[in-house]
Amino acid sequence: MNTTSPYISIVIPAFNEGLGIKRTIKHVTNVISECQVDWEIIVIDDGSADDTYQQLCDLSQDDAHIKAIKLSRNFGKESAMLAGLEYANGDAIITIDSDLQHPPELMPEMIAKWQTGAQIVHAVKRTRNQESVAKKSAAFLINKIISGLGGINTNNSSDYKLLDKEIVDILVHQLPEKERFFRGLTSWIGFTEAYLYFDVEERLDGESKWSFWSLLELSITALTTFTSLPLRIVSVLGLITLVLGFFVAGDAIWSIFEGRAVSGFATIIISILIIGSFIMISLGIIGEYIAKIYEEVKARPHYLIKSKVGFKK
Q: Which residue in 69, 113, 139, 168 could disulfide with 118, CB within 3.0 to 4.6 Å?
């Protein structure tokens, strides 16, 4: 590692950020310029429908440190970050969001942690003051489930991280899976880690691109790619159904011995409804894993590039 003048790559995924991308690049540039390092900024336009990429082209013409990649369509944030990591040349790579909710002022401390031996520096959310109560509650629940079942620590984690080049090589070349969960993979890898804490800043321009359904999809991906424990729920439901069946059968036999008519109509209906629910839940869980397998075996590329600017031919 060259500690006198290290080369830092900053990877920024962006989707329809035309309103604020120049502000973001200027802010990041001002901070990294004071860090006594060589640097580059790589922005990945994830199929934006606005003028995000055109603004990046203009910025690149004015400053050779700024580079941009435009994907052919919206492949999702995970794929966009992977594209940035693959094209980054730095001794260390910082991934940061394009909406300035991740404070760039934390980057000098991240670099300092890296220079003293940390290969992964995680920026962890201290507070979520700008998020609604519902979103905070959902994030808390999802993080707890993923951390508990998946065996990785994602509590208040974010995509704001510094990664040593060795870690990036592992992510890019040794972990070829299509269904990716960046936060989980960086925790799963291990190596020497450090943690920094930040308060989520208010978004200055535009609106969040994360809907409830996109967050739900990311959560399902995180669970299914890091643990097979949900599949065991199917077995548990089967055992519960078996116990319920023995109970209903025992009640019917006992009624015969007592010489009374076998009533139990309501019991049978309830049992059928419960068993049917268990079956549908089980099929849903199995279906999610089959869907992920289907995506993996197709072996399609993570992303397709439409154009690039700022890179040497």
A: 113
